[in-house]
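Changelog entry

Holo records now carry the ligand SMILES as an explicit input line rather than a separate metadata file. Below, a converted record for S-adenosylmethionine, shown in the new format.
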Amino acid sequence: MALGFSPRAFCVTLAAFTMPTVREDFDCIALVSNGEWNHNSHYHEFLLAHVPSRCTQALDVGCGAGAFARLLAARADHVLGLDFSPQMIRLARERSRQYPNVEFQVADAMTWAFPREHFDCIASIATFHHLPFEEMLAKMRDALKVGGVLLILDLHQTRGLSGFFVNVLAMPVHLALRLVRTGRLRSRREAREAWKQHGLNDVYLPLAQVRRLCARVLPGAEVRRHLLWRCSIVWRKEAGR
Ligand SMILES: C[S@@+](CC[C@H](N)C(=O)[O-])C[C@H]1O[C@@H](n2cnc3c(N)ncnc32)[C@H](O)[C@@H]1O
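Structure line, unchanged by the conversion:
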């Protein structure tokens, strides 16, 4: 009998003996991640279109396995990817060996000391719903240089009648895109189970609340709803903010 390491068995065992935290969830997700297309990577091009053409310093908060940090590497002298999951950072480093200007750190965004007015671009993808929204917006705003750009993509609450219509429109698009991009209608079983476990504790803000908080902290920010259950925030820092 072949005795191999099974990510799924590891995660199930971990969940049985501990109350899994978000970090442990992502350590498990990292073990089953193969870097294929997903609802977040679908919006990379949209986000990249707002990155300044030349950045000295770029930051990706909650960088996961580093896919967007690697895209930023083409625009920036130095990219820093932060994530509090050691397994995600291990994977990000493994996948970024060919990118000498990308650095990854295991760090909790809630306690990391954001340097003031340091970055030309700060991105954060599918991470904000794990963070205190308003406090983190303010920290990232203060860490941007004048002229710098903040780019956030996150999930938002889709409930009620409008949520129903979003689902009716988004589902066929989601299925068609997944089939074209991955050759399958569903993700692999291991990945589905790891995400299902994580999703049990996820809470998303309604879009109206995202807009209200942005208006308070990032006046003039462009908040957009996207079809695949995501919203984006794009904000450029002007002098005096
Ligand atoms: C859904 S994943 C998205 C990863 C990546 N941005 C992407 O688009 O593939 C969310 C990431 O945020 C990280 N994360 C959540 N809370 C965090 C925190 N407080 N500090 C740093 N990273 C955090 C998780 O470990 C996870 O890798």
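Spot-checked after migration. Residues 160-182 form the longest helix (23 residues). The two ends are 63 Å apart (CA to CA).
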